Amino acid sequence: MPFDVAFCLGAEERLAFVVALGTLEGRTFDWGILAWRREG
Length: 40
Description:
The chain has one domain. Strands 1-2 form a two-stranded antiparallel ribbon. By secondary structure, it is mostly helical. The longest helix has 14 residues.
């Protein structure tokens, strides 16, 4: 994502993009505590 687009996003949209990209890498996000689940 271009930096000019990233800097224009609100906090909620930034979080959504970070979670989306992290889940594509196989990670799991816990929405209840707003944190990544530890593997293992």
